[in-house]
Design a protein that fits this description.
Largest interface: A-B, 21 and 25 residues
Strand content of chain A: 15-25%
Number of helices of chain A: 10
Radius of gyration of chain A: 18 Å
Shape of chain B: globular
Helix content of chain B: 10-25%
Largest sheet of chain A: 8 strands, parallel, barrel
Structural class of chain A: alpha/beta
Oligomer: heterodimer
Order of helices and strands of chain A: EHEHHEHEHEHEHEEHEHEH
Chain lengths: 290, 286
Amino acid sequence: MKLHDFGMDTITLAGPIEAKLRAVREAGFTQIMLSARDLVGHPDGEAAAVRAVVDSGLRVTGLQVLRDFEGLTGQLHDYKVDVAKSMLEMAQAVRAPLLLVCSTTSAHAIDDFDAQVADLRKLAMLAVPLGVRIAFEGLSWGRFVDDIGGAWALVAAADRANLGLAIDSFHLLAKDTPLEALEEIDPEKVFFVQLSDFMWSAPSTPEARRETARHLRVFPGEGAHSPAVAELIRAIDRMGYAGDYSFEVFNDDYVQMQLGRVTDRARRSVDWIAGHVSRRSLPVRRPVAG
Amino acid sequence: MIQEYLPVPSNPLGIRGVEFIEYITREPLALGALLRSMGFHEVARHRSREVMLFRQGDMNIIVNGHPDVAAESAHGRPPAIGALAFRVRDAAYAHRRARELGAWDMPTRASAMELHIPGVHGVGDSLIYFVDRSEGFSIYDVDFVWNDGVAKLPPATAGMHWFGLVQSVHADRTADWIDFYRTLFGFEALEPGRFFGVLPKGTLLRSPAGGFYLQLVEPPAGADFVDWDEQLLRAGLGTPDVPAAVRALQERGVVFVDRPPLQPSEKGALTQLYFGTVCFELVHDA
């Protein structure tokens, strides 16, 4: 695996977007995962942020994150569709090939699989004219979907070409999800992989998982589950996944450290992964129909 | 609120055909002259805007030279296909249903007509309208003045009728657009390799009521097409007799591509490119 297979995520770094872009580029990375907040929170406005991203020369891995989308009804649904449209427009503006969408945690969402499927289809259709793909991720504290199997069930049932899965190592580690769960998944529907670890054993409650996920993640190779992280990356590589890996490291300490110190840690993590996953597999060859 | 999710009908919007295709141009007179060569007649003009209605047989073309629209369009300099209007049973229903399924409502740009015609976002800058008044008092009666001394319903040259539209898509985006047209409009992809005419490329989709096709074309493999935008490229006109149509149009001055494999044949023909962006394809279709 090479450095260009990996990207950093702006949520790991402190400061304005320009400083984050510069630090990531200077560390040798070629891609970056953006948050919508990076764009709309820019003091000179969203257009200035978009310009900074485009001018940085970094490839945008994707834009995050649309939350609590599926399963809402009535006004709440309409409201969330408007939010989704804003994020899709931002993704298009910043040339993000995908929008990350997390499984709902909303108490207002209804427990209706078919309704959730219909909502994901709608989101996928909204994304088509803008050229954006939807990567759906099962949060380990999600209300109805809280693991990769549940996320895959929705994505597979929705069955839209531009709708796929995001795999986040944190959620698999936090719930001790066995790697066999990956065997059910069509590798071509894995759109995106996010990597991180954390420093203790799997938190037992959804609340504890969320707390850890949002404040205390570390880079692969720095945490308590290094063998499991390496095994997961090997398994994803064996599936034939050839897309991007992004370090999804939310950490309250890293956002009060010098940016260069944090990007150094990210670089060490790439080296650590490269040492444990020697090379990317050849793409899975499929028989061509007809 | 009770929501029941049942299988959708094969023609969810009640599409019955194509009401009109709109071209946007800064030079409506030049485009109008080309349309006349193609057998269209200018039958009406907008009461207050630089918008004309051309017609032959069942085909309506709106030439929108309204300065705001022509300047606004990303493809504003050369003429471009700006909209496709479907005939539907109930335009308000079709508009609502399409949005429920994930279509973007029409952007608030100046439309060709003052009459509000509901529409949604299509590929690129284009729109897809829904029209439910195609007989009797038509949408054109509201905004247009019929030209004196011109038949309102001029017959079609060589039985020409709408066959389809060709849309460019980015590499690996065909499946996304198939889903789009299938989910929102009930189009179905034909089996791979099924083509009509002289340009057997890409993927064909058939309208739910039949009779109208969309052809999705990705950039040629291995080519680095920097300028390959997603947009509506050209209209296809069906005719039961391609050679007769070609002869009739050649007499009017239309130039056809004559180099193999695109030379006019029983199967189809392709006009030269006018203004750098506009051409028409003839397709054998009874």
